[in-house]
Amino acid sequence: MKPRQIGEYLLELVYPRRCPFCDEVIGRMTRCSACERKLDKLWLKVPRLPATEHELGLLSGAAAILKYEDPVQAAVLRMKNGNRPCYAPLFAAEMARRIFGCTLTQKGGIILLKEGPALKQFDLVVPVPSFENSTRGYNVPDLLARPLAGYLGLEFDAAILNKIRKTEKQEGKTAQQRFKNVKNAYAVSCPERIEGRRVLLVDDVITTGATVSECAEVLMQAGAAEVFAVSVAETQYKGGA
Asked: Which residues contact 104 (CB under 8 A, 6 or more apart)?
């Protein structure tokens, strides 16, 4: 068993596999049949996010798999604030399948890569960092990015991009305030490790695009050749300018 698989197995022992959308224990089942019908209208048929609806900045593009509406919103909030890190491998598997065309299988409750993309589009996977993991005990984008990198067969590095100052919550802010809130909040610790490389940036939700575009700008300034962002969900910003 590979280290990633061992880690996922140990995570399952501590946090039994649950359906992210109803929080019922699903054990070794691939998905929760009770929630499939509810999600029919929420899966994004085209994962690629249009630049007309999100500010992508220096990103080469962005993608998500779900609309940020209940029960998806409730699932993400439980994963972030309700001590449900066990959702992350399930979401990461769906991201690998729906965005990158991976075929996945499951053995003994562990999700395994069965067949991956014909060509590797990226060189390494980097999560959006957070200050909150010091109190929460984990960083949600980190938990998503780690298994996603394993499914895609890519290098994972959570130490390259750092959050250097605490920011206020983005909820309730105008678009302009959101971008100002995250400006100069991130820094690259080891530019030599990303110089000329194609980075897959992972977050949980993309709204205005303020956070991922700011991270992309920092990564590109440090020498990255390309930055593409992916997330579990996307929501069109409905606040003011």
From this structure: 93, 96, 97, 111, 112, 113, 114, 151
